[in-house]
Automatic annotation (TrEMBL):
Keywords: 2Fe-2S, Iron, Iron-sulfur, Metal-binding. Residues 464-518 form the Rieske domain. This is Rieske 2Fe-2S domain-containing protein. It comes from Glycomyces tritici. PROSITE patterns: RIESKE.
Amino acid sequence: MRITGTGHASMFIETAAGSILCDPWVNPAYFASWFPFPDNSQLDWKTLGQADYLYVSHLHRDHFDEENLSEHISKDTTVLLPEYPTAELESELRALGFHKFIKTVSEEIVELPGGVKVMIQALTSPTDGPIGDSSLWVEDADGTRLFNQNDARPTDMSVFLQHGKIHAHLLQFSGAIWFPMVYELPDNAKRAFGKQKRERGFDRSLRYIDDVKGDWVFPIAGPPCFLDDSLYEFNDVFGDEGNIFPDQMSYVEWLEEQGRKQNIILLPGSVAEVSADGSASVVHPVDDIREWFKNKKQHLDEYKERMQPRLEAEKASWSHPEIDVLETLRERIEPLMQSAEHIATGIGGPVRFDLTAADSDQVVESIVFDFLERRIYHDDGAKVRYRFRTERRLIEHLLHIREVDWVNSLFLSCRFTAARIGQYNEYVYAFFKCLSEERLQYAEGWYAEQRPDDEDITVQGWQFQRRCPHLKADLSVFGKVEEGVLTCQMHGWKWNLKSGKCMTSVGHDIRSARAEDA
Protein backbone atom coordinates (compact mmCIF):
# COMPACT_ATOMS: atom_id res chain seq x y z
CA MET A 1 0.00 0.00 0.00
CA ARG A 2 1.33 3.42 -0.96
CA ILE A 3 0.52 6.53 1.08
CA THR A 4 1.37 9.97 -0.29
CA GLY A 5 1.26 12.82 2.20
CA THR A 6 -0.86 15.72 1.01
CA GLY A 7 -0.90 17.83 4.17
CA HIS A 8 -2.55 17.91 7.62
CA ALA A 9 -5.06 15.00 7.74
CA SER A 10 -5.03 14.61 3.96
CA MET A 11 -3.42 11.69 2.17
CA PHE A 12 -3.59 9.86 -1.15
CA ILE A 13 -3.85 6.09 -0.62
CA GLU A 14 -3.11 3.73 -3.51
CA THR A 15 -4.52 0.19 -3.31
CA ALA A 16 -5.36 -2.68 -5.62
CA ALA A 17 -8.88 -1.25 -5.96
CA GLY A 18 -7.70 2.21 -6.89
CA SER A 19 -6.90 5.38 -4.99
CA ILE A 20 -8.56 7.06 -2.02
CA LEU A 21 -8.10 10.78 -1.39
CA CYS A 22 -8.75 11.73 2.24
CA ASP A 23 -9.65 15.14 3.71
CA PRO A 24 -8.05 17.35 1.02
CA TRP A 25 -7.56 20.64 2.90
CA VAL A 26 -5.54 23.43 1.26
CA ASN A 27 -7.23 26.80 1.76
CA PRO A 28 -7.21 28.88 4.96
CA ALA A 29 -9.95 27.93 7.42
CA TYR A 30 -11.79 29.51 10.35
CA PHE A 31 -11.68 33.17 9.34
CA ALA A 32 -8.30 32.60 7.66
CA SER A 33 -6.71 31.72 10.99
CA TRP A 34 -5.62 28.14 10.22
CA PHE A 35 -3.33 27.16 7.36
CA PRO A 36 -2.01 23.64 6.66
CA PHE A 37 1.54 23.11 7.89
CA PRO A 38 3.70 22.52 5.93
CA ASP A 39 2.36 24.46 2.93
CA ASN A 40 0.63 22.03 0.54
CA SER A 41 -0.74 24.54 -1.95
CA GLN A 42 1.93 23.69 -4.56
CA LEU A 43 0.87 20.05 -4.91
CA ASP A 44 -0.73 18.91 -8.16
CA TRP A 45 -4.29 18.92 -6.85
CA LYS A 46 -5.80 18.45 -10.31
CA THR A 47 -4.06 15.07 -10.57
CA LEU A 48 -4.76 14.14 -6.95
CA GLY A 49 -8.37 15.09 -7.60
CA GLN A 50 -8.73 12.26 -10.11
CA ALA A 51 -8.77 9.74 -7.25
CA ASP A 52 -11.16 6.81 -7.57
CA TYR A 53 -12.60 7.43 -4.10
CA LEU A 54 -13.00 10.45 -1.83
CA TYR A 55 -13.24 10.23 1.95
CA VAL A 56 -14.15 13.37 3.91
CA SER A 57 -14.10 12.39 7.56
CA HIS A 58 -16.32 15.22 8.83
CA LEU A 59 -17.37 18.81 8.26
CA HIS A 60 -14.64 20.65 10.15
CA ARG A 61 -13.16 23.07 7.63
CA ASP A 62 -9.64 21.70 8.00
CA HIS A 63 -11.09 18.46 6.59
CA PHE A 64 -13.94 19.72 4.39
CA ASP A 65 -12.34 22.35 2.10
CA GLU A 66 -15.22 23.55 -0.06
CA GLU A 67 -12.98 25.55 -2.39
CA ASN A 68 -10.54 22.73 -3.09
CA LEU A 69 -13.32 20.16 -3.43
CA SER A 70 -15.15 22.43 -5.86
CA GLU A 71 -12.20 23.44 -8.02
CA HIS A 72 -9.90 20.43 -8.11
CA ILE A 73 -11.62 17.18 -7.13
CA SER A 74 -13.39 15.23 -9.88
CA LYS A 75 -17.14 15.14 -9.35
CA ASP A 76 -17.15 11.61 -10.81
CA THR A 77 -15.14 10.21 -7.91
CA THR A 78 -17.06 7.91 -5.59
CA VAL A 79 -17.55 9.30 -2.09
CA LEU A 80 -17.13 6.94 0.88
CA LEU A 81 -19.78 8.49 3.12
CA PRO A 82 -19.83 8.03 6.91
CA GLU A 83 -23.16 7.17 8.52
CA TYR A 84 -24.08 10.37 10.34
CA PRO A 85 -27.37 11.19 12.07
CA THR A 86 -27.91 14.25 9.87
CA ALA A 87 -27.51 14.50 6.09
CA GLU A 88 -25.38 17.66 6.14
CA LEU A 89 -22.13 16.16 4.83
CA GLU A 90 -23.87 14.41 1.94
CA SER A 91 -25.93 17.53 1.17
CA GLU A 92 -22.88 19.77 1.07
CA LEU A 93 -21.01 17.35 -1.19
CA ARG A 94 -23.99 17.02 -3.53
CA ALA A 95 -24.25 20.81 -3.67
CA LEU A 96 -20.66 20.85 -4.98
CA GLY A 97 -21.57 18.37 -7.72
CA PHE A 98 -20.58 15.00 -6.26
CA HIS A 99 -23.13 12.39 -7.28
CA LYS A 100 -21.63 8.94 -6.64
CA PHE A 101 -21.84 7.74 -3.06
CA ILE A 102 -21.19 4.56 -1.14
CA LYS A 103 -23.29 5.11 1.97
CA THR A 104 -21.46 3.07 4.55
CA VAL A 105 -22.98 1.63 7.70
CA SER A 106 -20.89 2.44 10.75
CA GLU A 107 -18.47 -0.37 11.61
CA GLU A 108 -19.57 -2.56 8.69
CA ILE A 109 -17.05 -3.64 6.03
CA VAL A 110 -17.62 -2.70 2.39
CA GLU A 111 -15.70 -4.63 -0.27
CA LEU A 112 -14.64 -2.55 -3.26
CA PRO A 113 -13.94 -3.95 -6.75
CA GLY A 114 -10.44 -5.41 -6.73
CA GLY A 115 -10.70 -7.08 -3.34
CA VAL A 116 -10.00 -4.04 -1.15
CA LYS A 117 -12.13 -3.65 1.97
CA VAL A 118 -13.01 -0.42 3.76
CA MET A 119 -14.82 0.31 6.99
CA ILE A 120 -15.82 3.64 8.53
CA GLN A 121 -16.71 4.15 12.16
CA ALA A 122 -18.91 7.21 12.66
CA LEU A 123 -18.98 8.99 16.01
CA THR A 124 -22.25 10.79 16.55
CA SER A 125 -22.41 12.65 19.86
CA PRO A 126 -23.02 16.44 19.70
CA THR A 127 -19.45 16.97 20.89
CA ASP A 128 -17.88 14.90 18.08
CA GLY A 129 -16.83 17.51 15.54
CA PRO A 130 -19.80 19.36 14.05
CA ILE A 131 -22.29 16.59 14.82
CA GLY A 132 -19.97 13.80 13.83
CA ASP A 133 -16.43 12.57 13.32
CA SER A 134 -15.15 9.36 11.80
CA SER A 135 -12.20 7.03 11.16
CA LEU A 136 -11.35 4.98 8.07
CA TRP A 137 -9.98 1.40 8.04
CA VAL A 138 -8.62 0.00 4.76
CA GLU A 139 -7.47 -3.55 3.97
CA ASP A 140 -5.65 -3.98 0.66
CA ALA A 141 -5.95 -7.13 -1.41
CA ASP A 142 -2.59 -8.38 -0.10
CA GLY A 143 -3.68 -8.01 3.54
CA THR A 144 -1.95 -4.69 4.29
CA ARG A 145 -4.15 -2.71 6.69
CA LEU A 146 -4.29 1.03 7.28
CA PHE A 147 -6.17 2.79 10.07
CA ASN A 148 -6.76 6.50 9.42
CA GLN A 149 -7.95 7.73 12.81
CA ASN A 150 -7.34 11.39 11.84
CA ASP A 151 -8.62 13.50 14.77
CA ALA A 152 -11.45 11.19 15.86
CA ARG A 153 -11.44 9.80 19.39
CA PRO A 154 -13.04 6.35 19.33
CA THR A 155 -13.94 4.85 22.69
CA ASP A 156 -13.89 1.28 21.37
CA MET A 157 -10.91 0.25 19.24
CA SER A 158 -11.82 -3.44 19.03
CA VAL A 159 -13.88 -2.94 15.88
CA PHE A 160 -10.71 -2.00 14.00
CA LEU A 161 -8.53 -4.70 15.52
CA GLN A 162 -10.70 -7.81 15.19
CA HIS A 163 -9.98 -8.17 11.47
CA GLY A 164 -6.21 -8.45 11.77
CA LYS A 165 -3.05 -6.53 12.52
CA ILE A 166 -2.83 -2.85 11.60
CA HIS A 167 0.28 -1.99 9.60
CA ALA A 168 -0.14 1.81 9.29
CA HIS A 169 -1.77 3.85 12.07
CA LEU A 170 -2.37 7.52 11.26
CA LEU A 171 -3.59 9.71 14.13
CA GLN A 172 -3.77 13.19 15.58
CA PHE A 173 -1.22 14.30 18.17
CA SER A 174 -1.43 18.11 18.19
CA GLY A 175 -4.01 20.50 19.63
CA ALA A 176 -7.06 21.59 17.64
CA ILE A 177 -8.87 23.90 20.04
CA TRP A 178 -8.86 27.44 21.42
CA PHE A 179 -8.08 26.61 25.05
CA PRO A 180 -6.22 28.01 26.90
CA MET A 181 -4.90 30.67 24.51
CA VAL A 182 -8.03 32.81 24.26
CA TYR A 183 -8.96 32.82 27.96
CA GLU A 184 -8.39 35.97 29.97
CA LEU A 185 -5.87 34.41 32.34
CA PRO A 186 -2.42 35.40 33.61
CA ASP A 187 0.36 34.26 31.29
CA ASN A 188 1.72 31.79 33.83
CA ALA A 189 -1.71 30.19 34.19
CA LYS A 190 -2.11 29.92 30.42
CA ARG A 191 1.31 28.32 30.18
CA ALA A 192 0.48 25.81 32.91
CA PHE A 193 -2.86 24.88 31.34
CA GLY A 194 -1.26 24.66 27.90
CA LYS A 195 1.49 22.40 29.20
CA GLN A 196 -1.11 20.08 30.74
CA LYS A 197 -3.09 20.02 27.50
CA ARG A 198 -0.01 19.31 25.40
CA GLU A 199 1.07 16.48 27.69
CA ARG A 200 -2.45 15.07 27.84
CA GLY A 201 -2.67 15.07 24.03
CA PHE A 202 0.59 13.15 23.76
CA ASP A 203 -0.46 10.70 26.47
CA ARG A 204 -3.86 10.10 24.87
CA SER A 205 -2.26 9.43 21.49
CA LEU A 206 0.14 6.96 23.09
CA ARG A 207 -2.80 5.11 24.65
CA TYR A 208 -4.32 4.74 21.18
CA ILE A 209 -0.97 3.60 19.80
CA ASP A 210 -0.67 1.01 22.56
CA ASP A 211 -4.21 -0.23 21.88
CA VAL A 212 -3.80 -0.48 18.10
CA LYS A 213 -0.27 -1.92 18.17
CA GLY A 214 0.30 -0.93 14.55
CA ASP A 215 3.63 -1.56 12.88
CA TRP A 216 4.11 2.09 11.91
CA VAL A 217 2.75 5.32 13.39
CA PHE A 218 2.10 8.35 11.18
CA PRO A 219 1.42 11.62 13.06
CA ILE A 220 -1.19 13.60 11.08
CA ALA A 221 -4.09 16.05 11.51
CA GLY A 222 -1.95 18.84 12.84
CA PRO A 223 -0.65 21.17 13.67
CA PRO A 224 -2.24 24.06 11.81
CA CYS A 225 -0.09 27.16 11.49
CA PHE A 226 -1.07 30.79 12.05
CA LEU A 227 0.10 33.34 9.49
CA ASP A 228 -1.83 36.42 10.64
CA ASP A 229 0.29 38.80 12.72
CA SER A 230 -2.31 38.81 15.50
CA LEU A 231 -2.15 35.00 15.82
CA TYR A 232 1.46 34.24 14.89
CA GLU A 233 2.42 33.70 18.56
CA PHE A 234 0.38 30.46 18.53
CA ASN A 235 3.00 28.78 16.32
CA ASP A 236 5.32 26.48 18.26
CA VAL A 237 8.57 28.25 17.40
CA PHE A 238 9.22 30.22 20.60
CA GLY A 239 10.26 27.43 22.98
CA ASP A 240 7.01 27.67 24.96
CA GLU A 241 6.34 24.37 26.76
CA GLY A 242 2.72 25.47 27.07
CA ASN A 243 2.14 25.67 23.31
CA ILE A 244 -0.60 23.21 22.34
CA PHE A 245 0.41 23.02 18.65
CA PRO A 246 3.62 20.92 18.62
CA ASP A 247 4.77 19.86 15.18
CA GLN A 248 5.31 16.40 13.74
CA MET A 249 9.02 16.28 14.55
CA SER A 250 8.49 17.36 18.18
CA TYR A 251 5.99 14.54 18.57
CA VAL A 252 8.16 11.92 16.88
CA GLU A 253 11.09 12.87 19.11
CA TRP A 254 8.80 12.44 22.14
CA LEU A 255 7.64 9.04 20.84
CA GLU A 256 11.25 7.98 20.44
CA GLU A 257 11.88 8.96 24.06
CA GLN A 258 9.04 6.57 24.98
CA GLY A 259 10.78 3.78 23.07
CA ARG A 260 8.50 4.00 20.01
CA LYS A 261 10.91 4.05 17.07
CA GLN A 262 8.78 3.07 14.05
CA ASN A 263 7.32 6.45 13.10
CA ILE A 264 6.92 8.09 9.70
CA ILE A 265 6.36 11.80 9.11
CA LEU A 266 4.49 12.73 5.95
CA LEU A 267 5.40 16.08 4.45
CA PRO A 268 3.29 17.16 1.47
CA GLY A 269 4.79 15.03 -1.28
CA SER A 270 6.30 12.34 0.96
CA VAL A 271 5.62 8.83 -0.35
CA ALA A 272 5.52 5.87 2.04
CA GLU A 273 5.26 2.20 1.11
CA VAL A 274 3.84 -0.11 3.78
CA SER A 275 3.67 -3.91 3.48
CA ALA A 276 1.80 -6.68 5.24
CA ASP A 277 5.10 -8.15 6.46
CA GLY A 278 5.62 -5.06 8.64
CA SER A 279 8.24 -3.38 6.48
CA ALA A 280 7.98 0.23 5.34
CA SER A 281 9.96 2.84 3.44
CA VAL A 282 9.52 6.53 2.79
CA VAL A 283 10.90 9.08 0.33
CA HIS A 284 10.61 12.77 1.27
CA PRO A 285 10.63 15.84 -0.98
CA VAL A 286 13.53 17.22 1.13
CA ASP A 287 17.01 15.81 1.70
CA ASP A 288 17.01 15.93 5.51
CA ILE A 289 13.63 16.02 7.22
CA ARG A 290 15.03 16.74 10.69
CA GLU A 291 17.04 19.65 9.33
CA TRP A 292 13.92 20.92 7.56
CA PHE A 293 12.06 21.14 10.87
CA LYS A 294 15.00 22.92 12.50
CA ASN A 295 14.32 25.75 10.04
CA LYS A 296 10.60 25.84 10.86
CA LYS A 297 10.43 29.57 11.60
CA GLN A 298 12.06 30.41 8.29
CA HIS A 299 9.50 28.21 6.48
CA LEU A 300 6.67 29.90 8.39
CA ASP A 301 7.89 33.39 7.61
CA GLU A 302 8.22 32.62 3.90
CA TYR A 303 4.77 31.00 3.94
CA LYS A 304 3.37 34.05 5.73
CA GLU A 305 4.74 36.39 3.08
CA ARG A 306 3.25 34.27 0.28
CA MET A 307 -0.18 34.25 1.90
CA GLN A 308 -0.51 37.92 2.86
CA PRO A 309 -2.59 38.82 -0.24
CA ARG A 310 -4.96 35.95 0.53
CA LEU A 311 -5.25 37.03 4.17
CA GLU A 312 -6.04 40.62 3.24
CA ALA A 313 -8.66 39.51 0.73
CA GLU A 314 -10.33 37.28 3.33
CA LYS A 315 -10.46 40.09 5.90
CA ALA A 316 -11.96 42.49 3.38
CA SER A 317 -14.96 40.16 2.97
CA TRP A 318 -16.03 40.08 6.62
CA SER A 319 -17.75 43.44 7.15
CA HIS A 320 -21.51 43.65 6.60
CA PRO A 321 -22.59 46.88 8.32
CA GLU A 322 -26.04 46.59 6.74
CA ILE A 323 -26.85 43.76 9.16
CA ASP A 324 -28.61 44.62 12.40
CA VAL A 325 -26.86 42.07 14.59
CA LEU A 326 -29.27 42.10 17.54
CA GLU A 327 -32.45 41.90 15.49
CA THR A 328 -31.05 39.19 13.23
CA LEU A 329 -29.97 37.12 16.24
CA ARG A 330 -33.43 37.52 17.75
CA GLU A 331 -35.08 36.42 14.54
CA ARG A 332 -32.91 33.35 13.95
CA ILE A 333 -31.62 32.24 17.35
CA GLU A 334 -34.37 32.96 19.88
CA PRO A 335 -36.66 30.27 18.38
CA LEU A 336 -33.82 27.75 18.79
CA MET A 337 -33.31 28.80 22.40
CA GLN A 338 -37.01 28.13 23.01
CA SER A 339 -36.52 24.55 21.77
CA ALA A 340 -33.26 23.89 23.62
CA GLU A 341 -34.66 22.34 26.78
CA HIS A 342 -31.70 20.20 27.81
CA ILE A 343 -28.98 22.47 26.46
CA ALA A 344 -30.44 25.69 27.89
CA THR A 345 -30.86 24.01 31.27
CA GLY A 346 -27.29 22.79 31.05
CA ILE A 347 -26.02 26.30 30.35
CA GLY A 348 -28.12 27.60 33.21
CA GLY A 349 -27.50 31.33 32.78
CA PRO A 350 -26.73 34.23 30.47
CA VAL A 351 -23.86 34.35 27.96
CA ARG A 352 -22.56 37.71 26.72
CA PHE A 353 -20.84 38.68 23.50
CA ASP A 354 -18.90 41.96 23.60
CA LEU A 355 -18.49 43.09 20.00
CA THR A 356 -15.59 45.37 19.11
CA ALA A 357 -14.68 47.60 16.19
CA ALA A 358 -12.46 46.04 13.52
CA ASP A 359 -8.88 45.44 14.71
CA SER A 360 -9.72 47.12 18.00
CA ASP A 361 -10.54 46.42 21.64
CA GLN A 362 -13.22 49.13 21.68
CA VAL A 363 -16.59 47.53 22.47
CA VAL A 364 -19.31 48.91 20.22
CA GLU A 365 -22.15 46.57 21.21
CA SER A 366 -22.78 43.97 23.94
CA ILE A 367 -25.41 41.29 23.43
CA VAL A 368 -26.69 38.79 25.99
CA PHE A 369 -28.00 35.31 25.19
CA ASP A 370 -30.16 34.61 28.25
CA PHE A 371 -30.68 30.85 28.50
CA LEU A 372 -32.93 31.19 31.54
CA GLU A 373 -35.42 33.54 29.89
CA ARG A 374 -34.63 32.14 26.40
CA ARG A 375 -34.22 35.57 24.80
CA ILE A 376 -31.52 37.84 23.38
CA TYR A 377 -31.07 41.48 24.37
CA HIS A 378 -28.54 44.29 24.80
CA ASP A 379 -26.40 43.99 27.90
CA ASP A 380 -28.08 45.30 31.04
CA GLY A 381 -25.03 45.02 33.29
CA ALA A 382 -26.07 41.81 35.03
CA LYS A 383 -23.52 39.12 35.86
CA VAL A 384 -23.03 36.45 33.18
CA ARG A 385 -21.64 32.91 33.27
CA TYR A 386 -19.66 33.12 30.04
CA ARG A 387 -18.31 36.19 28.24
CA PHE A 388 -16.84 36.34 24.75
CA ARG A 389 -15.16 39.33 23.10
CA THR A 390 -14.75 39.41 19.32
CA GLU A 391 -14.94 41.78 16.38
CA ARG A 392 -18.46 42.76 15.38
CA ARG A 393 -17.66 42.12 11.72
CA LEU A 394 -17.05 38.42 12.45
CA ILE A 395 -20.59 38.07 13.82
CA GLU A 396 -21.88 40.09 10.88
CA HIS A 397 -20.19 37.64 8.53
CA LEU A 398 -21.58 34.60 10.35
CA LEU A 399 -25.06 36.05 10.00
CA HIS A 400 -24.46 37.04 6.38
CA ILE A 401 -23.52 33.48 5.37
CA ARG A 402 -26.16 32.01 7.71
CA GLU A 403 -23.55 29.91 9.52
CA VAL A 404 -25.14 27.20 11.67
CA ASP A 405 -21.94 26.25 13.48
CA TRP A 406 -20.05 29.00 15.31
CA VAL A 407 -17.65 26.44 16.79
CA ASN A 408 -16.60 25.40 13.27
CA SER A 409 -15.95 29.03 12.35
CA LEU A 410 -15.58 31.66 15.08
CA PHE A 411 -14.32 29.64 18.04
CA LEU A 412 -11.75 27.55 16.16
CA SER A 413 -10.47 30.79 14.60
CA CYS A 414 -9.12 31.88 18.01
CA ARG A 415 -10.15 35.40 16.98
CA PHE A 416 -11.82 36.05 20.31
CA THR A 417 -11.18 36.14 24.03
CA ALA A 418 -13.23 34.43 26.70
CA ALA A 419 -13.89 34.49 30.42
CA ARG A 420 -16.16 32.36 32.57
CA ILE A 421 -17.41 31.97 36.12
CA GLY A 422 -17.02 28.39 37.34
CA GLN A 423 -16.18 25.28 35.40
CA TYR A 424 -16.11 24.60 31.70
CA ASN A 425 -19.63 24.09 30.36
CA GLU A 426 -19.85 21.92 27.25
CA TYR A 427 -23.48 22.93 26.69
CA VAL A 428 -22.41 26.46 25.73
CA TYR A 429 -20.42 25.17 22.79
CA ALA A 430 -22.98 22.47 21.98
CA PHE A 431 -25.58 25.21 21.49
CA PHE A 432 -23.41 27.38 19.28
CA LYS A 433 -22.62 24.46 16.98
CA CYS A 434 -26.33 23.63 16.65
CA LEU A 435 -27.78 26.81 15.16
CA SER A 436 -30.23 24.99 12.91
CA GLU A 437 -33.41 23.15 13.80
CA GLU A 438 -32.05 19.85 12.46
CA ARG A 439 -28.86 20.02 14.52
CA LEU A 440 -30.57 21.26 17.63
CA GLN A 441 -33.25 18.60 17.62
CA TYR A 442 -30.63 15.89 17.15
CA ALA A 443 -28.52 17.23 20.03
CA GLU A 444 -31.55 17.58 22.28
CA GLY A 445 -32.56 14.00 21.54
CA TRP A 446 -29.04 12.75 22.21
CA TYR A 447 -28.87 14.45 25.60
CA ALA A 448 -32.38 13.22 26.45
CA GLU A 449 -31.34 9.60 25.85
CA GLN A 450 -28.30 9.69 28.14
CA ARG A 451 -28.78 7.62 31.28
CA PRO A 452 -26.38 6.59 34.06
CA ASP A 453 -24.58 3.38 33.23
CA ASP A 454 -25.74 0.47 35.42
CA GLU A 455 -22.36 -1.28 35.42
CA ASP A 456 -19.78 -0.41 38.08
CA ILE A 457 -16.04 -1.10 38.24
CA THR A 458 -13.58 -1.03 41.15
CA VAL A 459 -10.22 0.70 40.83
CA GLN A 460 -7.78 1.28 43.71
CA GLY A 461 -10.39 1.00 46.42
CA TRP A 462 -13.08 3.03 44.68
CA GLN A 463 -16.23 1.76 43.01
CA PHE A 464 -17.73 3.90 40.25
CA GLN A 465 -19.73 3.65 37.05
CA ARG A 466 -17.89 2.13 34.14
CA ARG A 467 -18.90 4.69 31.50
CA CYS A 468 -17.66 8.28 31.55
CA PRO A 469 -20.60 10.71 31.87
CA HIS A 470 -19.01 12.91 29.22
CA LEU A 471 -18.77 10.74 26.09
CA LYS A 472 -19.28 7.23 27.48
CA ALA A 473 -15.61 6.23 27.34
CA ASP A 474 -14.85 2.96 29.14
CA LEU A 475 -13.25 4.04 32.43
CA SER A 476 -11.77 0.57 32.92
CA VAL A 477 -9.55 1.52 29.97
CA PHE A 478 -9.31 5.30 30.13
CA GLY A 479 -9.82 5.90 33.87
CA LYS A 480 -6.94 6.77 36.20
CA VAL A 481 -7.33 7.19 39.99
CA GLU A 482 -4.91 9.26 42.05
CA GLU A 483 -5.57 10.47 45.62
CA GLY A 484 -9.33 10.10 45.31
CA VAL A 485 -9.54 11.87 41.96
CA LEU A 486 -10.66 10.01 38.84
CA THR A 487 -9.33 11.27 35.50
CA CYS A 488 -10.77 10.11 32.20
CA GLN A 489 -7.74 10.19 29.93
CA MET A 490 -9.90 10.40 26.83
CA HIS A 491 -10.45 14.14 27.33
CA GLY A 492 -8.87 14.86 30.73
CA TRP A 493 -12.13 15.25 32.71
CA LYS A 494 -11.86 14.77 36.48
CA TRP A 495 -14.16 13.72 39.36
CA ASN A 496 -13.89 13.84 43.14
CA LEU A 497 -14.73 10.22 43.95
CA LYS A 498 -15.75 10.98 47.53
CA SER A 499 -18.56 13.28 46.39
CA GLY A 500 -18.98 12.15 42.79
CA LYS A 501 -18.78 15.79 41.70
CA CYS A 502 -17.28 16.63 38.32
CA MET A 503 -14.29 18.94 38.75
CA THR A 504 -14.13 19.82 35.06
CA SER A 505 -17.61 20.76 33.92
CA VAL A 506 -21.10 21.41 35.18
CA GLY A 507 -23.73 18.68 35.20
CA HIS A 508 -21.63 15.54 34.72
CA ASP A 509 -21.44 14.03 38.21
CA ILE A 510 -20.50 10.39 38.58
CA ARG A 511 -21.84 7.53 40.70
CA SER A 512 -19.02 6.59 43.08
CA ALA A 513 -18.25 5.28 46.57
CA ARG A 514 -15.44 3.62 48.49
CA ALA A 515 -15.43 -0.05 47.57
CA GLU A 516 -16.02 -1.20 51.16
CA ASP A 517 -19.12 1.05 51.40
CA ALA A 518 -20.65 0.04 48.09
